[in-house]
Amino acid sequence: MSLDVSPALLEKAERGEVSDEEFVDCVRNSLPFAWNLISRVVAELKDGTEDFADNVTPPPDEAARGQLLRALASDSIRGGLERHFGVKLAFQNCHRVAAFRTAAIDGDRYRKFISPVGQLRNQSPELRDC
């Protein structure tokens, strides 16, 4: 799953003139499933009182899963989304995305989520091939 980069944006990138806003807009338009899921998780975080919110529902199909993997496996995309939303994103399996308040990054909940133990405890036979 690649980004759909317009010729104009590619020209700007070749000159090194792409803003975070333009980059995030390209991500939003290219990866709509990932964008909507992450937007929802961030909205739940901002509407709640907890230090994190997460998604535990698998994507509806392989195309959606591919979008999510692309968004979160790319350092530049993930970083752009984190800066845009003002959160720290964490990712497990093929769908478990969490958004943490930046103040919670040093906290127990974040450390547990990103730990090897947290990863192993989030596995199940249903997720083996995701």
Q: What structural category arises from helix and sheet content?
A: alpha+beta
Helix content: 40-55%
Structurally, how many domains make up the residues? 1
> Spans with pLDDT under 50 lasting ≥5 residues?
none
User: What's the N-to-C terminus distance?
Assistant: 16 Å
Annotation, overall tally of beta strands:
3
Spatial order of strands in the largest sheet: 1-3-2
Radius of gyration: 15 Å
Question: SSE string, helix = H, strand = E?
Answer: HHHEHHEEHH
Q: What is the count of DSSP helices, taking H or I runs of 4+ residues? A: 7
What does this molecule look like?
- By secondary structure, the chain is α+β, with helices and mostly antiparallel strands.
- The protein has one domain (7-127).
- Helix content is 55%, strand content 12%.
- It has seven helices and three strands.
- The chain has a three-stranded antiparallel sheet, sandwiched between helices.
- Strand 2 (87-92) and strand 3 (96-101) form a beta hairpin.
- Helix 2 (20-30) packs across helix 5 (75-85).
- The mean pLDDT is 89.
